[in-house]
Amino acid sequence: MDKKIFIFSFFVVTLLLSGCWDKVELNEIAIVSGITIEKGENARYRVTVSAINSAEQSKTSMMGNTPSVNYSLEGDTVSELTQKMNVGVSRKLIYSHTRVLVIDEAVAREGLLEFLDFLERSGEFRNDFNILIAREGEAQDILKITYPIQKDPSLKIHDQAQSLHNEWGGDPGIRLTDFITTLIIEGKHAVAAVVKVKGDPEKGSSVENNKKIDLDALIEFDGLAVFKFDKMIGTLSLEEARSFIWTDDIEQTELSVPCNEEKNKFIDIKVISTSTKKETEYKNGKAKIIVKLIGEADLMGTQCTDSLDKVDTFNKYEKLTETFIEGEIKDTINKTQEKYKVDIFGFGDTLNRSNHNEFKKIKYDWDQIFSEASVKVEANIFLRRSGIRNKSFLTDLEKYKEKAE
Question: Is the pLDDT confidence value at 287 over 90?
Fold first, then answer.
């Protein structure tokens, strides 16, 4: 009896494990790499999807045609529009490999909750795509600008954001989960990177743009969008975006630090590693914000004639770098306090973690308290190396010029 039950169970399980009933052939699907959301002319939203032309991604099958195909549709919900795209697209769209979500500034200023809930709830989207805000033009143009090195615009922007984050620090690397988590954290507001088209979008969207040395158009990162809850209220510059990232941790960046009193000559400092600590104190109705960072850096170049074989020169350059960094970060925090009056840095969250009972009493007033808080930034930079040579030829050259004159 037991044997019969075992055999019966075996056949039932075998049938249930059959994996062909829901198969989808590769030539029946299209991979979506990017999505834009804008205000519609005749409905609430206009959604544009960018589907990869897979034949143009292969060296053996590429023929110089368009690397992706874009299609736009208007409607009142993003959820419906993503499923309705086959009105004009022949293949089933797969959204799990989406790399960028570009939101028009006008939509961002009205609020994002209506479709962020769908994106998180849906099982079709991963949470690892970049959230970007488009300025100075139509958001759909962002996914049209071709590029010779990486043909698909969405994949190019995704890699561009990652490289900028790793090499210089201008992109905060905001993903869907990051944005939503920030919305529900007490004591912190959300941000997102800003992008724009530089050049002529119409010419930049042609296949011929792929074949030019001097491109007609390309996509540039242009700073940081500041949010209050789910609504965009303003922007910070690209340099201020780097300062924002610095209040957490920055992987590496390059600085041009003035090295003379006139501030018209500079030393090139490459920061190769940093560690940042935030502290928030609240006493007698006033908050004090403290940012402490420690890092290592290399001297990559100099326009000043200080002798690099002297310890005093390195001490001087370390102090100049520390003062420069402290000023950059403090100015960014002060601007956010005065102009936007929202805590995008998470100082309130820091206070909540260190003194939860005290933060509970003021959490609904925290943004106002933050806007009036005193700010102190302490940088401690160690200048480790000066490239492949210690002594600069500029010193000898200046001495020679003085004698020659």
Answer: yes
